[in-house]
User: Fold these one by one.
Assistant:
Number 1:
Amino acid sequence: MESMAALTGGFGYFLFWFIIVLTVLVFVHEFGHYIVARWNGVRVEVFSIGFGPEIFGWNDRTGTRWKLSAIPLGGYVKMFGDADPASMPSADVAEMTAEERAVAFHHKTLAQRAAVVSAGPIANFIFAILVLAGVFATIGQPFTPPEVGTIQPESAAEAGGVKPGDVITGIDGQSIERFEDVQRVVRLNPGRAMDLTVKRGGAETKLSVTPKLTTVTDRFGNKHEYGLLGIEGQGVQYLRYNPISAVGRAGGETLNIVVGTLQAVWQMIIGARSTDELGGPLRIAQMSGEVAQYGLAAVLPFMAVLSINLGLINLFPIPVLDGGHLLFYAAEAVRGRPLGLRAQEYGFRFGLALVLTLMVFATWNDLVHLRVVEFLKGLVT
């Protein structure tokens, strides 16, 4: 019952850091929507961190109500002409006066509306790049030369002919600069034969390796299924970059995380990867508290990764999410006119049901992972 004890024993600590991390990321996301809406002349009525009853808030000079709400699991920006936080058009949107149309979101051009909707996820990506760039310029980026140190007996690397001292330069045509690149590519491809290019004794050698499917438990107690070669590098270094190079490196890492996340999601969809890895708010809370124990140097990269995932998830073409709005706008661009209100309403209902289903599923995974279900069974049996 270690996971359950960790959750209950440090609940306040975990909750504190979860709220801090989530509040920052939600603020960044919603501020992206807000600032681009204001640039395009849209009147913003509400900027809320959280949902439900208001805890406290204030009105600014433009009439926007800035508030903190009771349920800290997201947030929203409600613009003039919206019927609800999901940005469904209000019933009277077609009957607005010329003055009202000028500041109403739904009467802006298609390009302006798409820019406002896209701004939230884009803000998350920009935030992640800036945070990672700051870490790379001050603390440095972890770097392990792609030279093979030790090889585990009966491993995929041994079976493929990899030898200590080999320097890995490419995998399936992808250039390799550091050991972390090897891990990133191999972990997503368990059981698939891969072409490995190594430098050995000054000459280039081609090998074929098939990463073994391995279940790994991380320091947070989460179990993950990875492809592993069974090799270790020669030690970790931290490379610090100048500000410009740091931004470039951070952009590259952000792209790697996006690609890796999409590959993992696709593998879950086709059944090649276990959905047990899908975590919800409880696991994020646990990880927030655990990461915070390692200090700001660990919290900042953790926030950057979550920010990337928040931006990416919101771009999925699911009604209710930003990607769903962009999907409707794409249909509008093709049709030459917006979808009907009923079609949009049904789309949002479907999207909401899907999002809620995924949230329940992820939360159930959290409860199983944290052994809450096992704990509750023990109380009644």
Number 2:
Amino acid sequence: MSVKIRLRRTGAKKRPYYRFVVADSRSPRDGRFIEILGYYQPIFEPAIVSLKEEKVYQWLKKGAQPTETVRSLFRRVGLLKKWEMLKRGEDISEITLKTELVGKKKLKGKAKQKALSQKQETVSESTEEKDKSSE
């Protein structure tokens, strides 16, 4: 039996609310699950994430595989970094997980063009500096 940590959608239409659950990989998205590990509310700005850390670590230790979406959320919260440090036996007492995820602002029109031109300028400057340093 392959066990996954994934999102289970709840909430009203156009107002999603997700739960992090441990489920058999063969069960449907909103079907039967083994345990609830936390929740994710993307409709708020910033998005809210709440996790039961110890239970997540227990399931990861048992071999549960997070889905890509859950893995990216764990990475943004800081849980994956903490898990890697825990596996290596390092001190994790200083690290705290984020509870709010700030999304990237979507730029439109002139602001988008300005950001792209600035990015291109910085890339060209860095390549010029590399060329000078290699000579």
Number 3:
Amino acid sequence: MKEEKRLIEAALFISGRDMSLEELRSLTGIGALGYLQGVVQELQKDYESRESAIEILEINGKYSMRIKNECINRVKQFAQDSEISKCALRTLAYISKHDGMLKSSLVKKLGTGIYQDVKELVASEFVKQTKAGRTSKLTLTEKFKKYFAQE
């Protein structure tokens, strides 16, 4: 469960939007929605027990990670625009779980909207695209690994 919890935490952090259990199912590959809900609830408890400035909320069956209200006014001045769009971040999160995947497989999973996302991710040098037959292979770059502190 530790790996699923870390992956869900990362997805909620990077997405900046509400995510449904269905999206988390797609991300983790776990079919049991009850199990996923339990993982998210455990993550919520983790944040509560740390007395963190961050919380995970559930609203209408969707989950999001946010700064707690009592902290937001003091820190909002430090918010900055993302280096890449939120849609591209979602695509990047999926690619990071499936490093070395084919673009055609990504289209089947996330839809044709990924073409613009991949173009943006290649331009920002988070993803490298190499020809693989009639499609392309997508791999993470060193910039991605440094930016997201992967080793």
